[in-house]
Amino acid sequence: MEIIYEYSKPRSDFGRQCLLSDRPAELISDVPPDSDLALQFMPRSSRVRALQSSWEMSEHQVNTERFESESRGINHVEGGWPKDINPQEMEQTIRFRKKVEKDESYLNSIMQLGDVIGRCVGQNTAVDIYQKYFEDEDMWDKNQEPPSAKTINVFRDPNQVKRTVTCLSWHPDGGRKLAAAYSCLEFQKASTDMSPDAYIWDIGQCDRQMDWQRCRDVVACILCFFFFPENPNKPELTLKPASPLVCLDYNPKDSHTLVGGSYNGQIVFWDTRKGSQPADVSSLEQSHRDPVYKTIWLQSKTGTEAFSASTDGQVLWWDVRRLSEPTDKLILDLGREGNLDRALGAISLEFEATMPTKFMVGTEQGIVVSCNRKAKTPTEKIVSTYDSHHGPVYALQRNPFFPKNFLTVGDWRARIWSEDIKESSIMWTKYQMSFLTDACWSPVRPSVFFTVKMDGMLDIWDVLFKQNDPTLSIKVSDEALYSLRLHESGRLVACGSRHGTATILEICSGLSSLQKNEKSLMAEMLEREAKREKILEARQKELRLKERSRSEQSREDEVGRDAAEREETPEQLIARAEEDFFSMVEAEKKRRREREDEKKQLNG
Known about the structure:
This protein is α+β, with helices and mostly antiparallel strands. The chain has helices spanning 35-38, 90-101, 104-124, 135-142, 218-227, 378-381, 509-512, 518-567, 570-603, and strands at residues 149-156, 164-170, 177-183, 198-202, 237-239, 245-250, 257-262, 267-271, 280-281, 292-297, 305-310, 314-319, 328-331, 346-350, 358-363, 367-372, 382-387, 395-398, 405-410, 413-418, 427-428, 436-441, 448-453, 457-462, 472-475, 481-486, 492-497, 501-507.
């Protein structure tokens, strides 16, 4: 038996807008129970239950087909790589992609999939006429707040003899902790009572040593005081090296491990799961001869490789699983002869994961050295140099959005460079009244960078907004600031001072969130400034060539004049010398007569 029924509807009712409204509840129908029907039934006792030894079944038939549905999901991960290719290794993936892109079957597949992708993209970009677009942008334009920052934590050195916060490093998993290295960098002024310890601070604890007026939430502070009575300025973990640490860095692949550089030149490795004592230390014979000013973890399969730089003129590569000796070495001799006596002292390092073979070194002599780690010979490892500052290059960092441009800080100004232009920087700040000690780019905004100075000021620069003055200047401390580190979210800034105070500030959303068209505008500005410097550089070369040709022409004239003089006879030379002498005497007599006449006129 098959039942078929056709439903029909007027065309005018198709697509009619659904109008919904709120209205109070109303009683439509009330059917009271029929007492006569209740007499036909017998009440069942709760103790009696009917049982059946077979399954109860019923037979029925409907005119619809059964539709079975199930929920499915796809976990999108990076896959499809051969077994011999490590997706974490940038060089191998780039080499494999270039090989595949040259395959004809790959090109044919891409052409066939183009139509399918285009249709899917068209479906995704379909416009919903009932959705309110650009609502968030309108609210942002109306409620844009002025640049501001506030202090949220202050951590002080618990030792009696205060030391300088020489380096800061954020915990890679969410930035819940902050590692700080302390040392005295003034030559032979370190006290014998000075502690070599470094600390890991938990930034979740509110610093109750701040005054009550600076706390924004008094109730939260009172609850924190009663429920967490422990000392807020007590570090979560104390790292105990043999020599004070000048630099300290968290491993981005393993949040439990850190590597540090000591004042005596040794490399120290920690595993926080094993406690405060170092897991391994490099030997003195194979380490640096001067303080290690910078250590950086490398992108590797094992996640255990790092390299360090020191003022002894060496860059050393290490594997923390075996610190008995370095795995590689580079001597910063610009003559490319590997002479350690003529090497430049390294004081800052820069390594970008997207450029695994390149790194840059800032030196004490104000020169930035660009190097190639994978070069076959030592002479090829030093690629180019940039004469940047009058003094040591204290900070060196590539722009995270435009790696070809990098920021340097030294003397009294900060400079922005392009790798293609080696004669001069493309942008720079004006000379400041105080010495600049550190700087870094914002990880979320390509046009914003931060600098700290000897007068305790933190300056935030937005080059798209203005170039001559900082967008925001904050007096962080009454003492000099020596270190600076920005959290990966761009919202928190940690500053280290001369007397061991680590201050954490929270930046407003305007300076810590990407603005509309900011990347394209910054790219245009950098390209424009690079073009301008190239034009000026070409003009300078042209002027130098003209000056060189002019000097060569004058030199040829002098040579010709000397040759002509050598061809004259002795009598002619004597006559010309007498003529020159008497002409000079006559000129001197004439000048004296004119001077006497002027005096007579004044006296008369």
